[in-house]
């Protein structure tokens, strides 16, 4: 066997182990009884240590050196070597006992978070979250020393390879300057329109689920390789060729679950469209989380809050829930789905105010990783930031700093990818509609095949063949900038839409 085939076989086995972890994590979040938490934590910790051991195997350095000299490798194999080296370099910075400690702390914190969130009890979560944060600082410092980065940039690099906070600071500061004034403009435009009441529930959960499944099918989700379930926080997870999504239901508002389903389906379509020939190799994975978030936000925000989509979906909504009257008219539903209203919950936020939620979390997690702010002060800092950025007064920690699972689950450095993803989504959707002008009219007919085909060719099937900027340039003609995102917001919300 050649060195490359040794590497390919080895990382194929590591991928299989990672798939097992993915399904166990999904089960923990969706179906596992509370009493199994301790046993599951031990199992997950062991599997993660084993996976870490495979990624840091002492033979990998020699295999990489020998494979580099193989002149018969093609571009996909060369890119796979690059991604293997990236993983190996980062993971060898961590001792296995730190990986084990992190896994156990995360498992305990996630379970406590569910209770703390329900009870708006930050004090109860504090010691668990402090343990996770302490370990994340240690992980960031170890990786940062290896990569020559700050602890925060080293954590960010796990989710956005090559991403740096200095660049994000510039982008986010620009948005933070633009959005408050623009939000006031949008609210003024909305205030001049006749007010229409929202559809009134209750909306039976089984009917909401049926509508969600119908929309997933229209989008192109493959039910032979996935499923829809319920969790405290909507997510997309599972394993290769077993891509599972979740949502959460509110009988008083069917829009929350529906938009959650559409968002997570965007993630799932990306996962289901990755290159099958390299599915179990690092080069076959998704190209970073800003691109992943772009796919969920492209589906949910760009496509499924368009006038064309609502024209298709409105009759199905009326049929599903037996709706009639002014609140169920197509234009009224579109106005509802594009209503701008500063609120407390990130996952329910509109396109205009959503970036403020992310900017707040980004600034807070940077300060916490740098130990520039005591964790005990997080609720007060959160509430002050919400007042400053969105003008809302947070009534309790359930609607404040306890609403997201990311920090309890160890996802430090993840949050900025959401707004980077929104900007990327606008740029990609603009390019797709320019290349295939029938995409939006087809969506109005419930036909997403043109959009999905373009995404499959230009994004999904590319895996990690290219670096993020190179992939985006290949697909859209330029690296990421805020131009398409701002233009989209102005067109849809600034009085032009």
UniProtKB/TrEMBL annotation:
It comes from Bosea vaviloviae. InterPro entries: Peptidase_M32_Taq. CDD domains: M32_Taq (cd06460). Binds 1 zinc ion per subunit. One of its GO terms (molecular function) is metallocarboxypeptidase activity. This is Metal-dependent carboxypeptidase. Belongs to the peptidase M32 family. Broad specificity carboxypetidase that releases amino acids sequentially from the C-terminus, including neutral, aromatic, polar and basic residues. Keywords: Carboxypeptidase, Hydrolase, Metal-binding, Metalloprotease, Protease, Zinc. Its EC number is 3.4.17.19. Signal peptide: none annotated. GO terms for biological process: proteolysis. It is an enzyme of class 3 (hydrolase). The active site is at residue 264. The keyword Protease applies. Gene3D superfamilies: 1.10.1370.30.
């Amino acid at each position: 066997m050649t060195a490359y085939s040794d590497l390919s076989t080895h990382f194929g086995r590591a991928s299989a182990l990672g798939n097992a972890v993915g399904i166990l994590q999904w089960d923990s979040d969706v179906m596992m009884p509370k009493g199994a938490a301790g046993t599951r934590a031990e199992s997950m910790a062991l599997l993660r240590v084993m996976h870490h051991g495979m990624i840091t195997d002492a033979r990998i350095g020699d295999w990489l050196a020998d494979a580099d000299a193989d002149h018969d490798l093609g571009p996909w194999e060369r890119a796979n070597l690059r991604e293997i080296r990236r993983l190996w370099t980062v993971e060898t910075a961590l001792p296995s006992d730190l990986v084990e400690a992190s896994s156990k702390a995360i498992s305990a914190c996630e379970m406590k978070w569910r209770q703390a969130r329900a009870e708006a009890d930050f004090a109860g979560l504090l010691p668990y979250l402090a343990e996770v944060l302490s370990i994340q600082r240690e992980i960031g410092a170890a990786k940062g020393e290896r990569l020559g980065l700050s602890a925060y940039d080293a954590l960010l690099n796990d989710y956005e390879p090559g991403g740096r906070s200095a660049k994000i600071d510039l982008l986010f500061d620009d948005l933070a300057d633009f959005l408050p004034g623009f939000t006031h403009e949008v609210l003024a435009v909305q205030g001049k329109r006749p007010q229409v009441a929202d559809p009134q529930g209750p909306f039976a959960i089984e009917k909401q689920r049926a509508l969600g499944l119908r929309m997933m099918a229209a989008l192109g989700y493959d039910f032979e390789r996935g499923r829809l379930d319920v969790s405290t926080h909507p997510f997309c997870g599972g394993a290769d060729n077993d891509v599972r999504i979740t949502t959460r239901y509110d009988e008083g508002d069917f829009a929350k679950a529906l938009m959650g389903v559409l968002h997570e389906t965007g993630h799932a379509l990306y996962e289901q469209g990755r290159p099958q020939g390299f599915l179990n190799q690092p080069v076959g994975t998704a190209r970073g989380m800003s691109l992943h978030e772009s796919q969920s936000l492209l589906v949910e925000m760009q496509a499924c809050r368009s006038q064309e989509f609502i024209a298709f979906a409105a009759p199905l909504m009326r049929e599903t829930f037996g709706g009639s009257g002014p609140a169920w008219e197509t234009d009224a539903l579109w106005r509802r789905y594009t209503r701008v209203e500063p609120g407390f919950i990130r996952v329910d936020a509109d396109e205009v105010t959503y970036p403020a939620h992310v900017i707040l979390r980004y600034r807070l997690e940077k300060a916490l990783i740098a130990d520039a702010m005591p964790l005990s002060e997080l609720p007060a800092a959160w509430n002050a930031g919400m007042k400053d950025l969105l003008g809302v007064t947070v009534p309790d920690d359930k609607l404040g700093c306890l609403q997201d699972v990311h920090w309890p689950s160890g996802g430090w450095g993840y949050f900025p990818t959401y707004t980077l993803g929104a900007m990327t989504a606008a740029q990609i959707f603009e390019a797709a509609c320019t290349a295939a002008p029938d995409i939006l009219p087809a969506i109005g007919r419930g036909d997403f095949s043109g959009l999905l085909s373009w995404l499959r060719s230009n994004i999904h099937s590319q895996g990690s063949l290219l670096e993020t900027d190179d992939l985006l340039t290949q697909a859209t003609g330029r690296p990421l900038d805020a131009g398409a995102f701002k233009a989209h917001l102005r067109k849809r919300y600034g009085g032009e839409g």
